[in-house]
């Protein structure tokens, strides 16, 4: 079973890139973030024509998450991260697929920090930690995938000294991520490649992709009951170099059936 996560940075504007990648990679399930499209503008027909069913939670101009499936319509569990009924951002969606729970998330960026946006990020993270702990306590196989907007360690960023004041790398952010990990989650890419330089995002500015001046901010967390099924993982870095591509690259894992 191949599961991928991809921050598309605008599902309609990047649709040719997304469809090309789906055709070449053929993941079984895909978590998409930053759709930047309201509910009615999600390109369902094109996704269906590519061989996928989909559930999604859109929002005009910002945010937006979706789960695509090559094996029938995902069984939606929730499209809201519990804990704050006043939070209207479309940043989380969760479904049952092939016997596992798949959560797709787009965690807030949080910049500028400190400030209200950073406070929102940390509050969202706290809610996410509570939700993640419920999954751990359930003992069920769970995968939480998406754009976490977290640089976990210095080896996950080109020239970490330049990021010390950024919301993605501030101590509070990394501590929040570690709090989730400490519940028993496995960071899939680091489990397989503990010492390698791995990036999933390269800015559009200053030839960041050409210089490989990237960040690793797109993550897969695996619950204890599924971590031993992890077979392989990787980043489709070449997609970042395609014309009119997102500033993120698709990330994927393969699980033993």
Protein model, in words:
This protein is of the alpha+beta class and 257 residues long. The protein has one domain (2-255): Deoxyribonuclease I, Chain A (4-Layer Sandwich), CATH 3.60.10. The chain is built from 5 helices and 12 strands. It has a 6-stranded mixed β-sheet. α3 (116-138) packs parallel to α4. The relative contact order is 0.16. The model has no long low-confidence stretch (mean pLDDT 98).
Topology:
Elements: E1 2-7, H1 15-25, E2 29-33, H2 44-49, E3 53-57, E4 65-69, E5 75-78, E6 92-97, E7 100-106, H3 116-138, E8 142-147, H4 171-181, E9 186-187, H5 188-192, E10 218-222, E11 230-235, E12 251-255
Parallel strand pairs: 1-2, 7-8
Antiparallel strand pairs: 1-12, 2-4, 3-4, 5-6, 6-7, 8-10, 9-10, 11-12
Helix pairs in contact: 3-4
As an assembly, this protein is single chain
Number of strands: 12
Which word captures the global form? globular
Largest sheet: 6 strands, mixed
CATH level 4 superfamily: Endonuclease/exonuclease/phosphatase
Total helical segments? 5
Count of distinct structural domains: 1
Q: Order of helices and strands, N to C?
A: EHEHEEEEEHEHEHEEE
Q: Kindly name the structural category.
A: alpha+beta
Mean model confidence by pLDDT: 98
Radius of gyration: 17 Å
Looking across the biggest beta sheet, what order are the strands in? 3-4-2-1-12-11
Keywords:
six-stranded mixed beta sheet, globular, 22% helix, alpha+beta, Deoxyribonuclease I, Chain A, 24% strand, 257 residues, 5 helices
Short description:
With 257 residues, this protein is α+β, with helices and mostly antiparallel strands. It has helices spanning 15-25, 44-49, 116-138, 171-181, 188-192, and strands at residues 2-7, 29-33, 53-57, 65-69, 75-78, 92-97, 100-106, 142-147, 186-187, 218-222, 230-235, 251-255.
